[in-house]
Each structure stands twice: as structure tokens, then as C-alpha cells.
Input
Amino acid sequence: MSGANASPKGRSHQEMSGANASPMRSASAIARSLKKGRSHQDIRLVALVLSLALAFTSAIAQRPTDPALLIPQNAPELDYITASEPFSFPAGTTLAGAAAAVAFDSKGHLFVLTRGNPSLYEFDNNGKFIRAFGDGLFTRSHGLRIDKEGNIWATDVGAHTVMKLDPQGKF
Output
């Protein structure tokens, strides 16, 4: 075979690159194939080393240094009593939804933020119900804080907002 694509032995480059290719390849082709194979080996080696490091680190980190820590201990009795009815509600009034947060103001009043409507409840320092407010303010109430001036700060994780209400519960 003759022409621009002919090799010295009479075969074209296309024939040499096929299934019947000659064992003689260019140095750059050999370097490329070694480089490709080497990078896959490197990736596998790094993955293996990282896997082993993570496995042994977690195994070692979970072991206490003192074997006595593996023995269950009895906790001391806590010095408290439960109050059967800690809050007094007017007839027909209950907390609307689960409590999300609680906070005390400077007068010792307890504010409860619930996930229902109304969403805020105020109780005096004896547990007596004062008021409920905040209908429709929240998508999903979450946090509550009362500052020195008595302003009520509440977070809504559903609407991604922070609300500031005055001590009377108004915007």
C-alpha cells in the first residue's frame, strides 16, 4: 500500500490501530496508556487509604479509655416534685398545638409560643392565665425571646422570618 497514510510495512495507520495492530506503538501512545492506568491506580489507592483511616478512626474514637465507664451507673434522685396543674386556664381554653418555645419577661411572666392559633400565651409568676394572642402570625413558629424592654421576638422557620412584637403583642 502506498500513500500518505502508509506505514513502512505497507499498512495504513487505520489498520495498525485496529484489532490487528502491530505490537510496535509510538512512545507517546505508550506513555498515555501508562498515565491513564496509573491515575486509576492512584485513585483506588487513595480511596483504600481513606476508607481504612475512617474505619480505624471511628473504631478507636468510640472506645473509652477507662473500662469503668462501660459499667452503667445509677443517677441520684432529683430533688423536685411535679405540679399536677401548673397553669390555670379559663374554662374551654387550652394550648393550641405543641409548645415550640418558652421565655420569661422582666416581671417573671411566662410566655409560651405554640404551633397553633393563637400562638402566644402569657401566664403570671403564679401560673395564672393572662392572655392569648398572635392568631395567624406564624407559618411554623420556632423560637422566642423577650428583651429588657419587654419586646417579644419570635422566629418562624416556615416563613424564614423574625418578628418583633411590642409588649402588648402588636407589630
